[in-house]
Specification:
- 38% of the residues lie in helices and 28% in strands.
- With 397 residues, it is an alpha+beta fold.
- The chain folds into 3 domains: 17-85, Orthogonal Bundle (Helix Hairpins); 89-177; 181-395, PPM-type phosphatase domain (Phosphatase 2c, domain 1), CATH 3.60.40.
- It has a 7-stranded antiparallel beta sheet, with helices on one face. It has a 5-stranded antiparallel beta sheet with strand order 8-17-16-13-14.
- The relative contact order is 0.10.
């Protein structure tokens, strides 16, 4: 099925065949109807009189659970609709250009069988090739990408799922348009002096091409229990994001799971940012966490939120903060232990000034410098788990 998009006469094809697309949309409608059913039941019960306090609390908990279920169903419907409506445009390649590609690849001992150049609705391009290596040594996939970039006048890099070398058997190889930016990350940690295990956990992940997500969680307290709580938050955030859930919905679902866990599940903070490496737009979500900082040369901006950790209330005060990053910017994310150490010395309010004076360029070196500075302020005492995460972003040359 072809669709026309505003702003041009290019026809886009749905990724799924028409039958599969309609079936997925039908499933999405079913999930929405079920979500509306939960909400309709809730509206009817709101009109009924409430008895004693115990009955009121029970009904309130039931309402919260139905709200949560309705949100989850609507999010599933949204994911299905997004997949069903995902589209691309075939970019025609002349027979002469295809022969030119085949000849150039053969010079590198690569045989080309088929080639498709596509454009997504986002405007980003990708190329898919069916190819195999010849009788000689198998060339590296990224070397083939460099050759294609020159021939097509388009900066291409292998997709994350690509192998390292072109195989001897026919196979499909995907190259995507190179993002405008690339990043380097660094982490430095210290465990509370009375514990063997840190209650802080973190993750860097790329849930889709051209997007970096960083997550940091600080379990309440310290030791093994705090580690398990924060690990729970990180593990499920990774799973929900990789499954296609939006950041906000994933946070809400984890919060609901923590509340449902009752006393067996302690509160945990959540600190998250996501960078679009094509545009440089960075989105922050902070739930009960310490401030984060954007360092641009000697200027430092603090990103903070005054809300409670996960697992306290069903309704969370969640706000997304957006900033546009530029070449040479750094994002610094911290756990509460860093601020606690600073409070024993110069005070946490002096942290932006200290960050502005750092001249180091490597994120790992910067993270270690910040941690060592804070340890010096606390005279070497580690009274709480300490984690520093630094991400540097640069334009691709």
């Amino acid at each position: 099925m072809k669709r026309q998009f505003a702003g041009g006469d290019a026809a886009f094809d749905n990724v799924l065949p028409e039958y599969g697309r309609k079936k997925l949309l039908m499933y999405a409608d079913s999930f929405r109807d079920l979500a509306n059913t939960f909400l309709d039941i809730q509206k009817e019960e709101e009109t009924q009189p409430v008895g004693d306090r115990q009955e009121y609390l029970w009904k309130r908990r039931l309402v919260e659970n139905r709200d949560l279920m309705a949100d989850h169903l609507n999010e599933m419907a949204q994911i299905m609709t997004k997949v069903a409506e995902e589209a691309y445009r075939f970019i025609h390649m002349s027979e002469r250009k295809v022969k030119q590609l085949a000849h150039a690849l053969k010079e590198e001992d690569v045989l080309l069988k088929e080639v498709y150049l596509l454009e997504k609705e986002s405007g980003h391009k990708e190329i898919n090739l069916v190819m195999r290596s010849g009788k000689g040594t198998s060339p590296a996939v990224d070397e083939v990408g460099n050759l294609l970039s020159v021939l097509l006048n388009l900066r291409l890099v292998p997709s994350k799922a690509s192998p390292i070398f072109v195989g001897k058997e026919w196979g499909n190889y995907q190259y995507i348009e190179e993002p405008r930016f690339h990043v380097l990350t660094g982490v430095a940690k210290a465990v509370k002096e009375t514990e063997r295990m840190s209650g802080d956990n973190y993750s860097f992940l790329e849930v889709r091409e051209g997007t970096l997500t960083a997550v940091l969680s600080d379990g309440m307290g310290s030791g093994e229990k705090a580690c398990k709580d924060s690990e729970f938050v990180i593990d499920f955030m990774e799973k929900f994001l990789e499954a296609g859930f939006g950041k906000e919905t994933a946070v809400q679902m984890i919060n609901g799971a923590l509340i449902a866990g009752g006393e067996s599940q302690n509160m945990s903070t959540l600190d998250l940012y996501q960078i679009d490496l094509y545009t440089g737009i960075c989105e922050f979500i902070k739930i009960g966490s310490a401030p984060s900082y954007i360092k641009r040369e000697n200027l430092v901006e603090q990103i903070s939120a005054r809300n409670l950790p996960l697992g306290v209330f069903y309704e969370m005060d969640m706000e997304t903060v957006k900033r546009r990053l530029v070449d040479g910017d750094y994002i610094i994310m911290l756990s509460d232990g860093i601020l606690d150490a600073l409070s024993q010395g110069i005070g946490e309010e002096m942290l932006p000034e200290m960050l502005g004076k750092i001249t180091l360029k490597n994120p790992a070196e910067m993270a270690n410098h910040i941690l060592n500075f804070c340890l010096h302020q606390s005279k070497g005492r580690v009274r709480d788990d300490m984690t520093v995460m630094v991400t540097g972003i640069w334009e691709n040359l």
